[in-house]
């Protein structure tokens, strides 16, 4: 299927080959992105949308049985065409939205994921879309600043110029009154700001190799909240509190804040960049409240400790500027992003020329590097957790450039596949938590998934916004300006349950039984390269996670100790990084041969297929009996002592059971390993896992001679080389293993979650089929 790509005005072949079921141009779910940002003609605004809104209003009114909505929709449909009818219909849509409210109003307390109510109330949750409207109660006005030929150095004349220009602040109260999400987030931001108000300014803490990054992000988080609260309430107590935070982070408060020569720790430049961003926001959002002296002070501190060192990285090749040299990862996004936000904030007031010079470097550099941290299938080149840091830096930078100067200069579309990273985020998010392979990153503070709102808007992917708006981290100031309240429908409506990411860097699969059921089955598995992820990866080809019954049965151990010696130094075969349990192959849910790490140069291949099952409008999905998906990989190149290692995983029995199959021919001992928080009861070729009041039965089918389950602790073998500093403990984690001598094996492990109401006879025992023979019907 050829898909029209509006970016290059060409019909592009699907990157997944012809007939790819995920490249659906009509569903509005996974479509090629539109150029940032399509403008709708007035004719369309007042013509066709009236019909859409009338239909939506009628449907919603009917569903909710609201007399008011019914009355309004009928008055809208009887209204004459043009503005009058449009206004009535838009007001009807607005009241219908208020009536629905926020859909997922609770989060799972353990995993903080949204709890979606079970409903077959299908009519309210239709295809993701943005309803065209000019009604100021439900839609943002257009930005009056539209330079014909934008340049980085020509900024709008009104303040704020960053992310939230005045026209947006003016529109916001009306939108809040008519949008339950904005209303809830506004309340939460005020609540959070009040909490921070009562705390002392952030206390300087130098955290080894992680520097003062936590400090920087916490200061930024607070300043955003204080500045937001001031602008919405005009209460100057927020300005005073923001100033106290600024003074403190400048070392001019009552407690010391770092050494005078380098307060923002430029050696770990993320810190200096995030402080620059925080000071930029303070400067710009509270511009009218600062005295000239305060402005001079903010500028001088930002230039001295952030921008000038940043400029040196470009002009003098300062050693701490390594992140600008071919780094496609979060460092490039965060460093260029912070320097850009800071520079844009003071451009024009800055008499040193530093801001102007920096903008001549950062924008192009981020376009060439940061923008390419998304590979062609949408995966973030580092890890699922580092996606948050990278996209937050990227989105802040793109948004600040758009609002301040009228263009993003290619940051959003120099990489024509960038838009797919929203899709990556949705698929890497399971019913309980992320497929959290590799390093997890530092504390997030000001880092969220709210780039999804900007990307939804800029790439016209409404499902991104619909997915994010129910998440626990949605309530923060950026969301108030990036969220387009005309978004409507349900992200799950029409969403394929499975997706495969095939770029050789990652090669991973996401397969589930529902998008909205917290108890759903979810399997995610990866192959990919063991290098090339900014040294945030593990030696983990074949690694998987498994969710079912609201808990994670096979999980990840996460980051090692970032302060551990040589943790980030190298990803060569003999690197110290690979001596830490959480990073070595032993610490992964995969096959271990000869008790040895995988080859860092592994280059696996993968195959897969899916029934293409999509969820419908309802949060209750009935899975057809033949609905399945599978993914197989040839992992041989990852092993030194094996002639062949292949691994496959498939969903069985209408996505209620999972088969994991390994075909191994090894010249040294083999171990099948899986890390679990469950309590494990062993019984030969079967094991009972119990966790969170639920049960998972695991069994070895057609067990080769000698293949039984046993368990071990999540610690290194005594024969392993000793890492520079001791490993972290993994309390509560048990490793379920199958331990075998050298030989040729077909290991088939069946996972049967004990679903409520399902009896033993409802489970299937699949036939034994070689991986090379797997097909959609091979296990029927
Ligand atoms: C935002 O939230 C604050 C605190 O709850 C409230 O006082 C204020 O009225 C809200 N703003 C709007 C526009 O509703
Ligand atoms: C903001 O407030 C909400 C609601 O009380 C809370 O759940 C959340 O943790 C707070 N967020 C931060 C970053 O403090
Ligand atoms: C902090 O103090 C230094 C030294 O007096 C001054 O140069 C700088 O402008 C001050 N910055 C702030 C934000 O107060
Ligand atoms: C910095 O390094 C780059 C690439 O190695 C080189 O092209 C450039 O001339 C250097 N600049 C300075 C000021 O040394
Ligand atoms: C940048 O990285 C790419 C991909 O790893 C590599 O092919 C290229 O040679 C690198 N360029 C420089 C200047 O290091
Ligand atoms: C154990 O539970 C913790 C907390 O939910 C989670 O972070 C970790 O990934 C789990 N470990 C495994 C092996 O599932
Ligand atoms: C696997 O497929 C091959 C080629 O289609 C076929 O010859 C062979 O019989 C199949 N083996 C099994 C066990 O199904």
Automatic annotation (TrEMBL):
Domain Heparinase II/III-like C-terminal: residue ranges: 519-714
Q: Which GO terms describe its molecular function?
A: lyase activity
What are the subcellular locations of this protein? Cell envelope
Q: Does the keyword Cytoplasm apply?
A: no
Its transmembrane ranges are 46-65
Give the matching Gene3D superfamilies.
Answer: 2.70.98.70, Chondroitin AC/alginate lyase
**Keyword set for this entry?**
Membrane, Transmembrane, Transmembrane helix
PANTHER family linked to this entry: CHROMOSOME 1, WHOLE GENOME SHOTGUN SEQUENCE (PTHR38045), HEPARINASE II_III-LIKE PROTEIN (PTHR38045:SF1)
UniProt name for this protein: Heparinase II/III-like C-terminal domain-containing protein
């Amino acid at each position: 299927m050829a898909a029209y790509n509006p970016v290059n005005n060409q019909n592009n072949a699907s990157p997944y080959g012809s007939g790819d079921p995920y490249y659906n141009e009509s569903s509005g779910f996974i479509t090629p992105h539109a150029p940032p940002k399509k403008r709708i003609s007035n004719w369309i605004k007042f013509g066709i949308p009236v019909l859409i809104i009338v239909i939506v209003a009628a449907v919603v009114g009917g569903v909710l049985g609201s007399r008011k909505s019914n009355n309004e929709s009928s008055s809208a449909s009887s209204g004459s065409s043009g503005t009058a009818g449009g206004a009535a219909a838009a007001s009807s849509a607005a009241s219908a939205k208020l009536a629905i409210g926020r859909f997922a109003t609770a989060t799972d307390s353990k995993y903080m994921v949204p709890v979606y109510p079970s409903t077959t109330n299908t009519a309210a949750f239709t295809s993701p879309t943005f309803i065209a409207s000019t009604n100021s109660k439900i839609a943002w006005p257009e930005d009056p600043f539209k330079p014909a030929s934008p340049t980085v150095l020509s900024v709008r004349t009104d303040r704020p110029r960053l992310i939230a220009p005045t026209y947006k602040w003016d529109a916001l109260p009306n939108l809040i009154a008519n949008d339950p999400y904005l209303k809830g987030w506004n309340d939460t931001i005020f609540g959070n700001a009040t909490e921070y108000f009562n705390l002392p300014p952030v206390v300087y803490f130098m955290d080894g190799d992680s520097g003062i990054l936590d400090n920087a992000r916490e200061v930024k988080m607070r300043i955003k909240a204080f500045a937001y609260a001031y602008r919405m309430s005009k209460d100057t107590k927020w300005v005073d509190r923001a100033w106290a935070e600024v003074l403190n982070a400048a070392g001019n408060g009552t407690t010391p804040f770092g050494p005078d020569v380098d307060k923002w720790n430029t050696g770990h430049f993320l810190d200096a960049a995030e402080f620059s961003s925080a000071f930029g926001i303070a400067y710009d959002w509270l511009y009218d409240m600062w005295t000239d002296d305060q402005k001079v002070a903010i500028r001088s501190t930002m230039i001295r400790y952030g921008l000038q060192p940043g400029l040196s990285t470009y002009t003098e090749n300062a050693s701490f500027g390594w992140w600008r040299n071919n780094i496609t990862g979060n460092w490039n996004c965060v460093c260029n992003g912070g320097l850009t936000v800071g520079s844009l904030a003071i451009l024009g007031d800055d008499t040193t020329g530093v801001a102007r010079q920096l903008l001549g470097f950062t924008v192009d550099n981020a376009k060439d590097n940061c923008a390419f941290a998304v590979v062609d299938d949408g995966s973030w080149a580092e890890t699922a957790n580092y996606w948050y840091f990278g996209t937050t830096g990227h989105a802040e930078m793109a948004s600040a450039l758009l609002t301040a100067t009228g263009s993003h200069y290619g940051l959003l579309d120099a990489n024509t596949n960038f838009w797919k990273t929203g899709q990556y985020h949705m698929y890497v998010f399971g019913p309980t938590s992320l497929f959290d392979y590799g390093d997890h990153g530092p504390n997030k503070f000001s880092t969220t998934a709210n780039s999804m709102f900007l990307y939804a808007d800029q790439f016209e992917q409404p499902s991104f916004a619909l997915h994010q708006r129910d998440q626990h981290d949605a309530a923060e100031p950026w969301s108030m300006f990036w969220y387009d309240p005309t978004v409507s429908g349900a992200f799950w409506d029409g969403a394929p349950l499975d997706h495969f990411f095939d770029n050789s860097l990652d090669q991973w699969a996401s397969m589930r039984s529902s998008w909205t059921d917290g108890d759903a089955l979810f399997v995610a598995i990866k192959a990919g390269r063991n290098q090339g992820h900014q040294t945030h990866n593990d030696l983990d080809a074949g690694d998987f996670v498994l969710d079912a019954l609201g808990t994670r049965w096979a999980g990840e151990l996460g980051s090692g100790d970032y302060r551990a010696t040589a943790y980030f130094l190298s990803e060569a075969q003999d690197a110290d990084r690979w001596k830490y349990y959480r990073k070595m192959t032993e610490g992964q849910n995969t096959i271990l041969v000869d008790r040895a790490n995988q080859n860092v140069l592994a280059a696996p291949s993968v195959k897969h297929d899916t029934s293409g099952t999509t969820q419908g409008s309802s949060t209750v999905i009935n899975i057809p009996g033949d609905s399945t998906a599978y993914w197989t990989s040839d992992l041989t190149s990852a092993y030194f002592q094996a002639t062949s290692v292949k691994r496959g995983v498939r969903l069985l029995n209408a996505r209620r059971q999972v088969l994991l199959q390994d075909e191994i021919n090894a010249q040294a001992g083999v171990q099948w390993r899986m890390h679990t928080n469950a309590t494990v009861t062993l019984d030969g070729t079967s094991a009972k896992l119990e966790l969170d009041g639920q049960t998972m039965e695991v069994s070895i089918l057609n067990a080769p001679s000698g293949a039984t389950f046993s368990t071990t602790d999540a610690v290194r073998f005594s024969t392993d080389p000793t890492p520079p500093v001791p490993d972290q403990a993994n309390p509560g984690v048990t490793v379920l293993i199958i331990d075998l001598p050298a030989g040729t094996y077909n290991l088939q492990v069946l996972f049967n979650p004990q679903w409520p109401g399902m009896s033993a006879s409802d489970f299937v025992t699949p036939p034994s089929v070689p991986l090379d023979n797997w097909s959609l019907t091979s296990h029927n």
